[in-house]
User: Which sequence fits this backbone?
């Protein structure tokens, strides 16, 4: 008989299911993700630090875990919520089951719950704090715990997921006539970003979140990439400072997700928390310059308030579902960023052109600094 | 980009008759397309030869041509209408092929017509295998290795290079017709020959075998700005080697990692832009090697398809509607998502359930068969569940093939099992269950079947649960677990040795009830406004029952099958419209993804559910409607009616007693006796002795069939004791207590169909249809004409009197269909059915009066006197100043070895209509529309049974007078010669060469008249009919059609044919045609 598990939300919602990962107790902000494939990428995405992720697609684990699709060195999320977990996966690349993977990494998970009912609850009420446990099956005590979970706002989560020391990424590096060197600020970087850089012929040096601008400049980068990462950008003040200084030195900068928000703050803007965020792989984003739509992967709870930015900063991309800003660029500085994930993983590859655009920007800056 | 204003008038091409490979999905897509473009203000001209479609209703398009889908008729329409553009991508392969043919004749240049949706170049790149291959290779993608051949020696050479087995594909054909798999040289010879014959361009592709690989489909859309979305991914449970239409398929793809899936998506994007799909939907098929992951492109369809209909129903994304809008210039980001009404259509649906489609085979007609690359299924059921296990079980019971879910009864030994598992067949999935129960290793089953181990493990979980369910005490938790796996009460009751009703009562006591969730395109991320629902067993549902007081549930007709096709879906849709037009809320329950009835905006609410008593009752318990409509969905809802009635459900329209009085032979006999209406002498037999005695008393030939059958299943005409005993033996094998109806067979009688509406006081006779074929040919397979062309006024008067008397006596409220036979001036009743018949759409189109809507109004309590003008009611049937002829379309070409002749058992899959000033013209059009144009000159081969010889003389003389050469074998030749009719003699098979079959093969015959002997048909007759069929030479198999054909030939030789929209025909009527009441 499988162990019972309980998921309790701060609004009093109680979901009873079966334990399907590690046993124990965990807490965090409950969010949902609507991707139908790519649960492995979700599990290993550092941006999910301190969150309990519910997958809206009901059958998870069908192809198991592969050797090549991890997005970081380990899973960072607090817990995992699914309708049904597959224990006998099938795929030619599969190396282990999700169940095994979760146990190996000590991630508690619950299955057998009505994930659609949970999603509708989160849609209507916004992200909610929650506790998942296989030990405490008393809804009242669980509810108390849920209400004690700290809010995401104001927490510097990037510091918890960034690398301890700088490292290099050369896997899959494409040989090119004009090799480039990119310093990547690791606020919780996904390997997918590093793979995309490598595919563009960019050698990457990944540095911890608290690295100063001077230390970065000492690495002589052709450009700096501000990575994705978890939670609220505002407490990550040290990074905002570094970004300001790098931008002043006209270093080409490309920001992704949390990196986009930090760039927004560095350029003088403000951010705010969305009701339940964007967490899926099917969001249409319109690029204003080309009038073309790309289907994007998204995972963020905070957003840059465009109105708060100086007039030199323009919106480049807009989310067609809710009209929120999805990208910005500076008219005088070689910096730009997007709120969504151009590396996708998981998700469609429509936005990978942005890495090429970053490469071109770096080449232009390198070869004709006056024009840039 | 906004819509185009340089075009005002668009011609849309429909897909013609329902055939295997082209079902009612094109009525669904065409209807969506017409509605979408009309809403944009375009004037729409439609051409479609199929009257049983919603799209040909006169209020949909502005000008509706029910004319043959041939370049000749298309030109007539272009000349008359002068549209600026034509939209061929909503009408399946038929519309694309017609467009290519018309373009080759230069019609679009001549009439300055632009092709929307797909450029000619795109169609060619997608359809011509050689061009397709070149296109795909150019963009660096992988395909199975292949070689195009045009004759047998090339084929042998190619096969040596590719290795056996080798896939044979004919270019430009539908549903894989003419294709197959050749495992050795002999098969290659045969299959290449067939494929060459089937291909209109005489090209055949031999391809490296990817049998056993995983099969995937992507449904994608692209607009003129290169915006691209994947609407849905589909994974086939059956691996490559089985046509996707015959596979169990699942959406979304279940066993691909995100990277694997996205790479496939990237390739799809490259393909559509290389092929040039710029404004519309497209279906792309891939095969993936299960061990290496090598992925190859199989094919693309640059148009909406069966799969796109499935994808639309599976996701809530209306592909055809959006495709139509893209075709007139919109881009995806400019169109709103219909389901959420808040987000744009430029997105990729995310679903939070699993969709399974199961094919429905006509095994009851054509036996069990092996599946291959040529599609053989006649319909499909789709189901939605939260897991694959749940949706599969729902889909299987939705098929109405007797199974309550994933069931196997009986036992098979290991050897038989291994054999059955290795060959894909119409019942292989059930054999997988047998194998699992047998304890066979899932890995071994996966290896033998080529079905991915993931699916086998899912099936194993169902088998394991059954064991648990049999052993554990019945608790609410156990029941809930069972229901969450999709088990029906019927299955569960059987596992516990209980009665289904008893089990359902227990489940209700335990409060284990379904919750109803929404299909919302976005997995709950946004609020959805469209009530498209499915049942599952979860914590909570998404929606409350609607608060309307006046609401009715319509039960649909389930998967298409022979005998129950699009005609019934047409009626259900009309009923839904009528309810809404009368201020009622309409709620539809159906599980057929091809249909208009399962479009989310046809009814106020849509429940996508199997049509079983349990599933229907749960919806009814939830919604508590004022009533349920059962008379439009064919036999499916009718089979549920009495159980629903017993459960206290209010049936709208004719009550159960009326249905019983008509269906129960004894009760019906008593009614007719009372009304003094003659019937052919008849009786019921339960064993051979009784049968012999009865048949001898009545006198041979007799018509024999089991009681309560659909589509004339197992109905036969027997001529002597031997045939009778042979029939009895087969019947006893099927059932230990057969109950057989034996009727006197009225040979050479004229058969008639009557459709009428009764409100309890008055009867409106909408149409009397005279069959072209004599009584004994199933009415569904018979051509028929309205008004009747040979009946005397006295006979018509008698028929009307009997119809009125029966409708009133049976207390019909709504529709009734009665079949009559007239022999030697006497009128007999054959049967009566108080429900919508197959001919309702045909009669509606012919008369301009929507019968199903009229019947619905009556069922809601309105009176015919208030609905129709007094004159129309009094003088019914309405007199028509023109003639409409319906012709049946047969699926014989798909079933090698089947004798293509008509009989009392229905075999047709669809119908077409010809409409013109008189009977011969409308008959000629109906023949042309069914794919056989009557010749105006040439050689006619004649071979008839003795009974027909007298009739033959008139026919032969007429043909000679028109200049035809008559060809006959010795007997017929001598017979004609004796009567002074000149002909050429040809050898019978075995008499020497060239024989008659050689003549057919040389295509030196333009018409074949071959009436099989009623007793035992001879082998050479079979060879003649089969060869003619395969070479598409018109072959008439009964003497009555032959007379009609000769008349028609006489007329078409003299006059040129014209095309006219039904709206113009209706203007000639002595009354006003209406679109609603």
Assistant:
């Amino acid at each position: 008989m499988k162990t019972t598990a309980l998921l309790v939300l701060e609004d009093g919602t109680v979901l009873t299911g079966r334990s399907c990962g590690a046993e124990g107790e965990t807490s965090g902000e409950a969010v949902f993700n609507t991707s139908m494939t790519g649960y492995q990428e979700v599990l290993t995405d550092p941006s999910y630090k301190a969150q309990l992720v519910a997958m809206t697609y009901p059958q998870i684990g069908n192809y198991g875990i592969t050797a090549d699709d991890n997005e970081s060195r380990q899973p960072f999320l607090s817990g995992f919520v699914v309708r049904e977990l597959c224990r006998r996966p099938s795929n030619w690349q599969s190396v282990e089951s999700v169940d095994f993977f979760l146990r190996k990494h000590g991630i508690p998970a619950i299955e057998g719950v009505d994930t659609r009912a949970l999603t509708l609850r989160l849609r209507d009420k916004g992200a909610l704090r929650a506790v998942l446990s296989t030990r405490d099956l008393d809804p009242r005590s669980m509810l108390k715990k849920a209400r004690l979970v700290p809010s995401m706002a104001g927490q510097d989560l990037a510091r918890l997921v960034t690398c301890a020391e700088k490292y290099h990424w050369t896997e899959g590096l494409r040989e090119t006539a004009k090799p480039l060197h990119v310093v990547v600020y690791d606020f919780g970087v996904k390997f997918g970003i590093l793979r995309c850089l490598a595919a563009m012929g960019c050698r990457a040096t990944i540095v911890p979140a608290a690295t100063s601008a001077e230390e970065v400049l000492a690495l002589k980068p052709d450009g700096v990439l501000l990575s994705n990462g978890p939670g609220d950008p505002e407490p990550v003040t040290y990074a905002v400072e570094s970004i300001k200084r790098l931008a002043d030195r006209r270093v080409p900068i490309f920001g992704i997700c949390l990196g986009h928000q930090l760039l927004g703050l560095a350029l003088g803007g403000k951010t705010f928390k969305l009701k339940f965020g964007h967490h899926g792989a099917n969001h249409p984003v319109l690029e204003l310059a080309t009038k073309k739509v790309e289907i994007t992967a998204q995972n963020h709870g905070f957003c840059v308030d465009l109105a708060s930015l100086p007039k030199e900063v323009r919106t480049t991309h807009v989310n067609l579902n809710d009209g929120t800003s999805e990208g910005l660029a500076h008219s005088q500085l070689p910096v730009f960023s997007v709120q969504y994930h151009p590396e996708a993983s998981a998700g469609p590859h429509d936005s990978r052109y942005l890495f090429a655009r970053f490469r071109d920007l770096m080449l232009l800056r390198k070869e004709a600094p006056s024009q840039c | 980009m906004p819509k185009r204003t340089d075009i005002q008038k668009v011609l849309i091409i429909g897909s013609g008759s329902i055939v295997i490979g082209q079902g009612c999905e094109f009525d669904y897509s065409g209807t969506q397309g017409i509605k979408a473009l009309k809403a944009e203000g375009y004037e729409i001209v439609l051409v479609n030869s199929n009257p049983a479609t919603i799209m040909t209703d006169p209020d949909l398009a502005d000008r509706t041509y029910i004319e043959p889908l041939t370049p000749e008729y298309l030109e007539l329409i272009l000349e008359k209408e002068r549209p600026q553009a034509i939209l061929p991508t909503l009408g399946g392969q038929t519309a694309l092929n017609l467009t290519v043919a018309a373009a080759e004749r230069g019609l679009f240049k001549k009439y300055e017509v632009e092709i929307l949706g797909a450029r000619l170049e795109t169609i060619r790149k997608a359809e011509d295998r050689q061009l397709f291959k070149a296109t795909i290779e150019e963009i660096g993608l992988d395909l199975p290795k292949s070689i195009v051949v045009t004759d047998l020696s090339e084929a042998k050479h190619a096969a040596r290079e590719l290795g056996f087995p080798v896939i044979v594909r004919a270019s430009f054909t539908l549903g894989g017709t003419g294709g197959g798999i050749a495992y050795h040289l002999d098969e290659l010879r045969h299959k290449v020959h067939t494929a060459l014959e089937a291909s209109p361009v005489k090209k055949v592709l031999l391809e490296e075998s990817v049998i056993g690989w995983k099969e995937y489909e992507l449904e994608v859309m692209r607009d003129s700005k290169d915006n691209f979305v994947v609407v849905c991914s589909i994974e086939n449970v059956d691996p490559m080697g089985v046509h996707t239409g015959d596979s169990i398929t699942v959406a979304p793809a279940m066993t691909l990692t995100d990277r694997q899936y996205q790479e496939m998506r990237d390739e799809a994007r490259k393909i559509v832009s290389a092929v040039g799909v710029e404004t519309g939907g497209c279906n792309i098929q891939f095969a993936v090697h299960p061990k290496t992951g090598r992925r190859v492109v199989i094919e693309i369809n640059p148009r909406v398809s069966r799969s796109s209909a499935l994808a639309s129903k599976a996701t809530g994304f209306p592909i055809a509607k959006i495709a139509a809008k893209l075709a007139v210039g919109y881009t995806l980001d400019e169109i709103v998502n219909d389901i959420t009404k808040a987000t744009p259509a430029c997105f990729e649906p995310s679903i939070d359930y699993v969709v399974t489609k199961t094919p429905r085979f006509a095994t009851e007609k054509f036996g069990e068969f092996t599946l291959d690359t040529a599609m053989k299924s006649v319909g499909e059921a789709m189901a939605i569940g939260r897991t694959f296990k749940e949706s599969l079980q729902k889909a299987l019971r939705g098929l109405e093939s007797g199974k309550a879910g994933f069931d196997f009864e009986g036992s098979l030994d290991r050897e038989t099992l291994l054999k059955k598992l290795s060959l894909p067949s119409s019942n292989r999935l059930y054999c997988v269950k047998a194998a699992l129960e047998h304890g066979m290793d899932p890995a071994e089953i996966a290896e033998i079947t080529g079905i991915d181990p993931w699916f086998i493990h899912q099936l194993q979980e169902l088998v394991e649960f059954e064991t648990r369910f049999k052993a554990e005490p019945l608790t609410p938790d156990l029941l809930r677990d069972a229901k969450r796996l999709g088990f029906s009460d019927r299955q569960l009751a059987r596992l516990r040795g209980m009665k289904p009703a008893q089990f359902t009562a227990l489940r209700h006591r335990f409060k284990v009830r379904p919750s109803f969730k929404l299909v919302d395109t976005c997995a709950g991320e946004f609020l959805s406004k469209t009530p498209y629902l499915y049942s599952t067993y979860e914590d909570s549902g998404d929606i409350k029952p609607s608060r309307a007081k006046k609401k009715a549930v319509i039960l649909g007709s389930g998967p298409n099958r022979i005998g129950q096709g699009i005609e019934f879906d047409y009626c259900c849709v009309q009923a839904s419209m009528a309810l809404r037009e009368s201020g009622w809320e309409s709620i539809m329950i159906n599980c057929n993804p091809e249909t208009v009835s399962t479009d989310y905006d046809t009814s106020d609410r849509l429940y996508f559910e199997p049509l079983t008593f349990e599933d229907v009752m749960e919806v009814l318990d939830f919604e508590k409607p004022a009533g349920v409509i059962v008379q439009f969905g064919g036999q499916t809802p009718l089979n549920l009616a009495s159980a629903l009635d017993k459960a206290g459900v209010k049936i709208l329209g004719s009550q159960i007693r009326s249905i019983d009085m008509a269906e129960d032979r004894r009760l019906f006999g008593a009614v007719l006796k009372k009304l003094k209406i003659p019937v052919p002498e008849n009786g019921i037999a339960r064993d051979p002795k009784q049968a012999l005695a009865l048949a001898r008393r009545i006198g041979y030939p007799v018509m024999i069939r089991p009681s309560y059958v659909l589509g004339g299943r197992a109905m036969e005409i027997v001529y002597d004791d031997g045939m009778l005993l042979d029939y009895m033996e087969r019947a006893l094998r099927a059932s230990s207590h057969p109950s057989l109806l034996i009727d006197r067979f009225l040979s050479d009688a004229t058969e008639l169909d009557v459709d009428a509406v009764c409100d309890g006081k008055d009867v409106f006779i909408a149409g009397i249809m005279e069959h072209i074929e004599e009584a004994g040919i199933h009415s569904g397979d018979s051509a028929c004409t309205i008004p009747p062309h040979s009946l005397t006024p006295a006979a018509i008067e008698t028929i009307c009197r009997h119809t009125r008397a029966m409708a009133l006596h049976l207390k019909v409220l709504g529709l009734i269909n009665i079949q009559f036979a007239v022999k030697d001036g006497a009128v007999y009743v054959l049967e009566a059915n108080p429900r919508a018949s197959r001919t309702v759409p045909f009669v509606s189109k012919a008369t301009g009066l929507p019968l199903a809507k009229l019947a619905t109004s009556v069922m809601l309590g309105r009176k015919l006197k208030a609905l129709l003008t007094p004159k129309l009611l009094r003088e019914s049937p309405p007199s028509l100043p023109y003639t409409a002829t319906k012709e049946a379309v047969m699926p014989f070409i798909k079933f090698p070895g089947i004798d293509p002749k008509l009989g009392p058992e229905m075999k047709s899959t669809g119908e077409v209509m010809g409409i013109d000033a008189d009977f011969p013209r409308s008959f000629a059009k109906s023949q042309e529309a069914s794919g056989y144009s009557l010749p105006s000159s040439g050689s006619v081969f004649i071979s008839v049974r003795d009974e027909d010889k007298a009739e033959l003389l008139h026919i032969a003389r007429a043909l000679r007078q028109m200049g035809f050469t008559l060809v006959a074998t010795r007997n017929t030749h001598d017979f004609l010669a004796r009567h002074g009719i000149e002909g050429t003699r040809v050898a019978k098979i075995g008499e020497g060469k060239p024989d008659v079959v050689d003549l057919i093969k040389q295509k030196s015959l333009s018409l074949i008249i071959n009436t099989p002997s009623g007793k035992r048909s001879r082998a050479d007759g079979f060879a003649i009919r089969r060869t003619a069929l395969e070479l598409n030479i018109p072959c008439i198999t009964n003497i009555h059609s032959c007379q009609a054909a000769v008349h028609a030939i006489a007329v078409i030789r003299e006059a040129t044919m014209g095309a006219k929209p039904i709206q113009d025909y209706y203007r000639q009527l002595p009354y006003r045609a209406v679109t609603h009441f």
The radius of gyration of chain B is 28 Å.
